[in-house]
Amino acid sequence: MLRKSVFTLLVMAIGVISSFGLVRAYDAELAERLHGYILLQVEEHGEAWFIRSSDSLRYYMEDGDAAYTMMRYFSLGITDEDLESIPSVEDTSEMLSAESVCDSNDLASRLAGEILLQVEQNGEAWYVYPGTCRMIYMADGDEAYTIMRYLGLGITNGDLELIEEGVLAVNEYKDYSISIYPDYSELETEDGYKPFIPYGNGRGVQVTSSAIVTLQTMEAGQVSAIQHGLEEEEVTQESVTVADGSGMAFSAASLSEVNDTLLAVWLSPSGITTGFSVDGGMQWGDEEVLTERPTGPSVPSSCLWQDDEGELRGMVAWVDPPTSEDGGPLYVAEYEGGAWGDAVQVGESELISSPSLACFSDHQSMVFRQDGDSGLHVHFTQRRDGEWEDPEEILLGADPHMAECGDDIWVGYHWNGARRGHSSDGGDTWTYETVDNSGKFGSIACEGNIVAYQWGDYASREAANTKDSTQRTVGVELSFDGGESWESWEPAEGEMEQSIASVDVYDSEVIIFWRSPDSIRIKRYSGN
Predict the structure, then answer these.
(1) Assuming Cys at both sites, which of 64, 197, 430, 526 could form a disulfide with 145, CB separation 3.0 to 4.6 Å?
(2) Which residue, among 153, 154, 152, 81, has the nearest Cα to 116 in the 3D structure?
């Protein structure tokens, strides 16, 4: 116990103890000194607290479950090559007797106090002890709890109170399965179309300050928005007619939101059709047709933003295929001053489909699929100062869906499997990775450092190629560190015959919305 006593004296020496009972502010310097350490509350019952380096907060490590949560959501991804450059120990006794490499190993020193996940293997977790900058393997939560407590330092209650406390939110999902369609066959249209769920570049779920709003056909000829209560115990729902009589000809729609104002766009028999709600989806204004119905599938996309003067602005993008088999030229229409402007063609190509929009006050971004001699490619373009830049080919693939969080731009798409593209510099350079070799139709959403990627998870490549919905479930990967590491989530729990889902991220929660064989399904994943 000599080592722990020495630490307490060290804390006293740097002036963090007050014997006068005065109210003391948080000590940022102390928290920084203790980054990555486990502190044991010696004046109580030895409660363990982990000081997280990224925010200098202390988190209560109550037991193995809490340690497991920290392993998964406080961790940093690391490659095998970098991991090999950090010396390891076999057990805690060797760690305490080992010579420090903090002054001789730059990488180990930089990662001192971090939990590392071996992303090129099976996500094995390693703790880099800040006292020696050596790492130790943690097989599971219980072992992590034992290891980190053994390596802990004693601290008094007074000293501990000088470090601000953080809340460790154990990630969990909430299942809001709602039986809306008892018999789909009753709702088939004359053309054979069944109730749709928007997916891919047509986002069908948005979260407002008071509700989850989903967009779908409730019966033939009617498009409806449904509000689902946000409280954990509340599963309320209220159907509101967005458009009665215009119907939905294809599973093509998009729902966008800013400050509880919602814009819906869909492909109706009349054409590319829009509707607004200014109260979070409870009431909708008159629908407006922007252009005649294209000959082929158009898959419109929408976005909303507020300009520097606080005025509501909007944009819709679609293609106008000359036949049901071909792509077509790309068009956009802009909402400004309370009215839609005329459709304007973007670019010269005649072989475009599947646009996806993201809009902000200073620019608009768009990805779309373009046919070329060398195959299908995803192109990216931005509009600044009212002008669209020349599109740039960024990825080989089809049916892209985009999400933008600052300079981080994410694209979900498919090409011989479900893939995910990423740019961390505003679209100048791109990387991609294959997520599922038998996946299709990826959609993506982000908020801050949270990224959610969803795709149609088919049982085989053959099932994906034939779009066999009886062999399809919902695949999801989540990242809580800006894409450094990912974890899998199976909201449909492996059940097949699921529709493609739509995804949103709001207030640190991931919301997945899809249609199962007998119900509308919504699941929420609460993350740290």
Answers:
(1) 64
(2) 81
Of 249, 502, 201, 199, which is closest to residue 355 (Cα–Cα)?
A: 201
Three-point CA angle 317, 321, 325, nearest 5°: 130
| pLDDT tens for the chain, residues 1 to 528 | 333 343 443 343 333 333 334 445 789 889 999 999 999 998 888 899 999 988 889 999 888 878 877 876 777 778 888 899 999 999 999 999 999 999 999 999 999 999 988 867 767 889 999 999 999 999 888 888 899 889 999 999 999 999 998 876 554 555 555 544 434 444 454 554 454 555 544 567 777 776 777 776 655 445 555 555 545 444 444 555 555 544 444 456 788 888 888 898 887 777 888 888 888 777 778 888 898 877 766 778 899 998 888 899 999 998 887 766 667 788 999 999 999 999 988 877 766 777 889 888 888 988 888 876 656 888 898 898 888 888 888 988 888 899 998 889 999 999 989 999 999 998 899 999 999 999 998 889 988 888 999 999 999 989 998 988 889 999 999 988 888 888 888 888 888 888 888 888 877 778 888 877 777 777 888 754
- Are 79 and 68 in contact by the 8 Å Cβ rule? The answer is no
- Pull the structure tokens for residue 462: 């053959």
User: Global pTM?
Assistant: 0.65
Residue 40, beta-bridge partner list: 48, 154
